[in-house]
Amino acid sequence: MAEHSGFTLVELMVVIAIVLVLLLVAVPAFTDLIDRARVRGAAGAAMSLLSEARGAGVFSSRDVRVVFQGSDPAWCIGANGAVTASPLGTQAGAAPTCDCTTANSCTVLNGVAANAAGLQTLQLSSADYNGVTMGTRPSDFFYDGRFGALKDLATTPSVVFTSPKGKYQIQLTVAPLGQPSLCTPSGQPVIPGISSC
User: Fold this and answer.
1) Domain spans, the chain
2) So what CATH class is 9-183?
3) Distances, alpha carbon 30 to alpha carbons 17, 18, 37, 42, 130, in Å
4) What is the model's pLDDT at position 93?
């Protein structure tokens, strides 16, 4: 009698069934991970943009205006610095508004990662974060070019980013002294690495 090596049809079907069960368990967890990563990426990029805008303002001793524009699903954030030269020892002029829906329209004077004119584009678009929405947009606010604090210390700008499936939210808040921070609004699912508000 000849000996056969290989798998029987029953063994192959059992292996396929086990793989299918594992996929059914893993796919929802994977889509949840992607949903959480998208909102975390958008909020983190917005926080980074605000930190860069604040730093550029202090670096150049010029005020920086931050704008939140658009409506869901198309939103954007931009920062524009005062570029008018001022006489030695006087404060530069006010930072003009910018249209962050237009490419390269929001710039700050910065010695790091800048073009030949010393300008760095600071814009963030929802196009880079598919499906992430931004809640009520705050009014434009200004970073003081001397100290990096908000020009109007009575305001605390904040905005909430929501994941594509609506399960996760991250709130971005700017403290009166200018530091941006992230937190998860109360009653929302926890996102590892981000504290609750």
Assistant:
1) 9-183
2) alpha beta
3) 20, 18, 10, 19, 16
4) 66
